Amino acid sequence: MAKVSNPKNQHFLAQIFLKGFTDDSENIYMYDNKDKKVSQPRNIESVARERHLYTVFQAHGKNFSIEKKFSEIESFMAPIFRNLQVNGFSDISHTDIQNLVDFIALTVTRTPLVTRIAEEVSSNEDVRLKMISIHKESATKVIEQMSQNKGFSYALGLSELFKRRHEVLSHNFDIFLLTAEADNEFIVNDTYMCLEFICNKIHYVGEDVDWDKMQVKKHFPLTKRLCVTFFPKVDKERLGCAEIKIFTAKASASDVRVINFLSFAEKERYVYASNPKIFNDFSSNDCSSPQIHQDSRTQCPKPREG
After folding, report:
1. In principle, which of 27, 159, 160, 247 could form an S-S bond with 41, CB 3.0–4.6 Å?
2. Quick check: pTM over 0.70?
């Protein structure tokens, strides 16, 4: 388990996960959207870090319990990721898939963006007034805690964030386990999951979106060769239940490029890859246009249920 006694620089990408995107020398390349440059090869310990991202600063000192819990989860998942990096999806069990869904739901709650949103929400006056209207005494105590202890807002809401994201994935989606065909590699960004609209008649228009009507695929690159794609359940009677059907499929060069294009476009700041040449296809293009979120293919790769 990673040392967590005083983790000043806390990882927002699990190291065992990030290892799946390294080259043969176990180095990784990072595109930084701030300066539009690709880094020199770096080891995984030196990337995907932010200072005191999960630390709760309290009156009596710093609390690293969240970082410690993330470290324990990573240690538990390590054998699964090692097996994936060697054998791909050919030797994955149903229990492993359930653990992966848990890991993915947790991972998308531990981004720098989510922690910042938690802090912003806690300081929003409308949110505070609604809390007080429900139960003034207890809300006042919570608001005081959030004000005095940096990081408390994120810590307080983490379990609910995980629960909501897990329910969205398990109740509304089936899974495609995609394996990239030879010589094709996935990239991953600092928000992990990228969205792909299924219907190209629906346009992304910023905040004016009825998300209840949005049919999307959620791509979660797992290694440079593997991707977990969440695809809307077709059977309406299965919506709202936790049963997930699993399919396996090959991802063609075109499929990989679409997912990589979305990953690059939907980054907050960073994108990671095992080969810097992959970035050449995207960094020279305008990937900020909303239209790139539309799905030019209306179907997932033909599945093989397993």
Report:
1. 27
2. yes
